[in-house]
Amino acid sequence: MSFSERVIARFTRIGLREKLLFSMLAAVLFISVAIALISRWILVSSLTNELEMRGFAIAHSVAERGGSYLLDNDVPKLLALIFDEARLRQRKDLVAYIFIEDQKGNILAHTLTHKLPDSLRANTLPPGQPDSIKLIGLGNQEVYDLAAAINEGLYRIGTVHVGLNKRHIDTLVGKLRVAFLGFISAVVIITIILSSWLSKYITKPVSDLTRLSDEISRGNFDIPLKLGSGEDWDSAACPAFSNTDLPCWHFDQSRSGQTPAETHRKCADCAFYRKHKGDEVVQLGDSFRNMVWSIKLYRRRLRESEEKYRSLFDSGPDPIFVVDCASGTIRDANPRTSELYGYPREELLNMPFLELGPEHNTACLDFFIEGGGGCVYYPKRLHYKNGGEPFFVNMHACPISYRGKQAIIIAVTDITELIEKDAQLIQAAKMKSLGEMSAGVAHEINQPLNAIKVGSEFLSMMREEDLDIPKEHFKEVVNEISTQVDRAAEIIDTLRSFGRKSDLIEEPVDLNQPVRAVLSMVRRQFELDNIRFELNLAEGLSPVQAHSNRLQQVIFNLVANARDAINDVSNADGGGDRRILIHTGNHDGRVFIEVKDTGGGIDEKDQQKIFEPFFTTKEAG
């Protein structure tokens, strides 16, 4: 008896239950084998396409990230990029190589440990085509060479090639075929039994989720979030949606465990954030619905916040600049900048910030480039309008992040009018000081005038009496007259310089010069008051950037206050130590002026107030 006859004979002797079981097993086995044979072609092509798509994803990723490196000809970064992509996760078995060539076909970088074979360059990218694939040989194996263009704008600047190991792909196909044959029978049986029931239960909410996802991916957040019957939402019912200043109690405050306050009385039973009882499909629908509502709510708040701060930026009364830290160029500016500086906004954008204030803006940019933190204040900085007109500003600068880059936001206040008023006050104080010095100055000018008069009268008398003047005497008299004329002219020039309105531009000044200028006008007046000056002026002082006549005003005020302090403790007729000491010098790379007197000094309680504007200890009047 043959083997088939023995099997048939045994099958006829078994029970009905076993026959049904073996019949079902045979049917499932037949279906499984048929499905396996049909699926082989589908599986191989699908997996191959999937791996090809993965390879193209790697190629396009390298093309997008490596474009800037290719433009900069930064080969080390290109090598690091392709090695990182080739070794990521399981790619080292799938990816046989990656190499990059420029638009001329020159190889810039590759991951092979040996020279790149010429056969790998057979897959050329046709013009106008973004990618290409070709099966080529690499030694004793075959690879799929995937080529993708590296574009910069509309122009191709290079090509990236990714080689997929065909042997690895075949291995994956074999493993998946074995696994598929193992569970295909169970899948078929379970699919037949459950498909009709699960299709209605699962596909309906999934279809709704897919529909909502497609709309959200297009930026449509106003679509009704309806995932079943009775799920229509009215956004006006949410207090936090209608009033963006009110936080969402459910999202922001419900974790605290507190009950909603009066302003959130609707929120105890939130109509939007909800969790239905049910399995994972129901919970997935609820979670997706809640996520979309959160995005919708906070997207609205973000848009309103952006509009609010943009309106504050644009409507600010002072000019505001956003300056790129790396390049020093202006990235953004409010309308007030154009009004004050006279430049159109289009011309201000990308203009170097240094052009607005070459003398002072460098320090501001350097502070933040060198890593300075926090906000800084720069008073009385000189800027220039369109056309070169100078004006003074106060600058307040803070570091910010602007479009993903480190930047500085700089607020500018025009103080030119205040500076001019300050100059007028200083000029008035100078005129007052000149009035106080008038007696001493008159005496100082009177001395050379007397000497000139005596000399001229002597010469006139000798001429009237027809007397001969020795040549030496005549020369001595004439020289003395000339010296006294020069002295009077010097006093007048000093008065003119002291009384002149100070310029807004600073200039190099030797600190000894304003000291000598003031003493030339007041020394005699102070000596008449029995006050002596002791000078210790260092020679060769480094010049400082300042206003000479303002320094003269400061020194005059100091010696005038010193005279008042000396008169408070002694009088001119009663003797006593009545001296004013002035010392200049260098210390730690700086120059200084010290003015000391033999008066009573400043009370300790007043020492903290001496730099306050208009502070005085003198009685009114």
Report on this structure:
The protein is of the alpha+beta class and 621 residues long. The chain has 15 helices and 15 strands. The chain has helices at 3-13, 16-71, 75-87, 91-94, 166-217, 239-242, 249-253, 280-314, 335-341, 345-348, 361-369, 416-464, 471-499, 512-528, 548-569, and strands spanning 95-102, 107-110, 131-138, 141-152, 155-165, 320-324, 330-333, 376-384, 390-402, 405-414, 507-509, 532-537, 544-546, 579-587, 590-597. The strands form 4 sheets. Strands 2-1-5-4-3 form a 5-stranded antiparallel beta sheet. A 5-stranded antiparallel beta sheet has the order 7-6-10-9-8, sandwiched between helices. The longest helix has 56 residues, at 16-71. It is elongated, with a radius of gyration of 47 Å.
Distance between the first and last residues' Cα: 144 Å
Major β-sheet annotation: 5 strands, antiparallel
Mean pLDDT equals 76
- The neighbouring-strand order within the major sheet is 2-1-5-4-3
Please render the helix and strand layout as text:
Blueprint: H1 3-13, H2 16-71, H3 75-87, H4 91-94, E1 95-102, E2 107-110, E3 131-138, E4 141-152, E5 155-165, H5 166-217, H6 239-242, H7 249-253, H8 280-314, E6 320-324, E7 330-333, H9 335-341, H10 345-348, H11 361-369, E8 376-384, E9 390-402, E10 405-414, H12 416-464, H13 471-499, E11 507-509, H14 512-528, E12 532-537, E13 544-546, H15 548-569, E14 579-587, E15 590-597
